[in-house]
Specification:
The protein has 365 residues and is mainly beta. The protein is built from one helix and 28 strands. The strands form six sheets. Strands 6, 7, 8, 9, 10, 11, 12 and 13 form an eight-stranded antiparallel sheet that branches. The chain has a four-stranded antiparallel sheet with strand order 1-28-27-26. It has a four-stranded antiparallel sheet with strand order 2-3-4-5, with no helix packed on it. The chain is globular and about 45 Å long. The relative contact order is 0.16.
């Protein structure tokens, strides 16, 4: 095995062990991280000081030291010291915008998506760590409502809008978010009546590899996942076992560790409604989906694979964090704090973000 191979294997074993250690933690009250039961090296979510009460549904960790978060009231934060401190790098005059997604390339370059009807949906880009921002897209169609964004690489990316004229609208960039064009909808299947995306975690549009992208839906009679293998030009739609049939139900978050293996999470986001089947998995790129045999016990909006792992992933929602070690077939709750979104980096760090300024890293006591 090469030196790089050994390094990656050590990273994988260490991170999986850290995630498994979460299961050893004593239960915590809502809003708190668990305390170690028997192991002083037990891993858990460790809250970082953000200095704000904004709600962060957009999260883009780059590595162990660098991460970006985007949220309510036009708030954008950036850390370059592993979360020990956060710098407010919000775009000037953006206080009325609701940022729900952020995609970061490094410590200096990031793209944020604001959601809403008509001109409330915008894309802004920075190349200097948030010191200055440039608006690169403003929606002028009152029928469009953009939800999520994803990048295949540093140049090519997509954003998606709820259906316009009966089909999802896809926005494309080939220059890292500096300019955007609406793609033709001739290769997009018809949307179901009442169907839309959920701007809950920045994970209703996700990609894996250079060309594959998936779009999560809800609100219609069935919850579907749409897949494109050509960067959004043509799509196929597949029904998932996650319940729908109501504007509050469907698939809220997706994660693919490669172009074949994916996890979907969702449910019903209303606090007084159960979510009996909040997870599903695919092993064929989304051509078919299987219900998790032991799904997360409640609505979950975000999901992320642990880096360099074939089977371990985390799912988060307002009532807790769940861990799977078998590729999404079974889940176990390991934390009861509230988070909306979760993401992990190739160098082995996992981050979560949510309401009341909560941003946390998976670490050891």
């Amino acid at each position: 095995m090469t030196s790089m191979g050994n390094t990656r294997r050590m990273m994988s074993v260490g991170l999986i062990g850290a995630a498994l250690a979460l299961t050893l933690a004593a239960p915590a009250r809502a809003g708190e991280t668990p305390t170690a039961a028997t192991d002083t090296n037990t891993a858990s979510w460790q809250l970082t000081p953000t200095g704000t009460d904004a709600r962060f549904r957009g999260l883009a960790p780059v590595d162990r030291r660098t991460a970006w978060a985007a949220g309510s009231r036009g708030t954008v934060l950036r850390t370059t010291d592993g979360g020990r401190s956060w710098r407010n790098v919000s775009p000037p005059g953006a206080g009325e915008l609701e940022f729900r997604d952020v995609e970061a390339f490094d410590a200096r370059r990031a793209v944020v998506l604001a959601i809403g009807e008509g001109e409330a949906s915008r894309v802004l880009r920075t190349e200097d760590g948030g010191a200055t921002w440039t608006e690169s897209f403003r929606n002028t169609d009152p029928r469009a409502f953009y939800d999520c964004m994803t990048f295949f690489d540093r140049r090519h990316g997509l954003a998606m809008s709820d259906p316009v004229d009966g089909r999802y609208r896809i926005l494309s960039t080939r220059d890292g978010g500096r300019s955007w064009q609406v793609l033709p909808n001739t290769g997009m299947p018809d949307a179901l009546p009442g169907e839309a995306g959920f701007a809950a975690s920045g994970q209703c549009l996700v990609s894996a590899g250079p060309r594959d992208v998936w779009l999560a839906t809800g609100g219609g009679a069935t919850a579907r996942v749409l897949h494109s293998a050509d960067r959004g030009l043509t799509w196929t739609a597949t029904v998932t076992p996650i319940p729908a049939g109501d504007p509050a139900r469907g698939v809220f978050g997706l994660a693919f560790r490669d172009r074949a293996h994916g996890i979907a999470v969702g449910g019903d986001y209303r606090k007084d409604q159960p979510s009996p089947q909040a997870g599903a998995v695919t092993g064929n790129g989304g051509r078919s989906w299987r219900a998790s045999s032991t799904p997360p016990p409640a609505y979950r909006s975000g999901v992320a694979w642990l880096p360099h792992s074939r089977n371990a992933a985390l799912a988060v929602g307002p009532t807790g964090t769940d861990l799977t070690t078998d590729g999404g077939r079974t889940w176990r709750t390991v934390d009861t704090g509230s988070y909306d979104t979760v993401d992990c980096t190739p160098d082995g760090s996992c981050w979560a973000a949510g309401e009341k300024g909560r941003i946390a890293r998976l670490g050891r006591h």
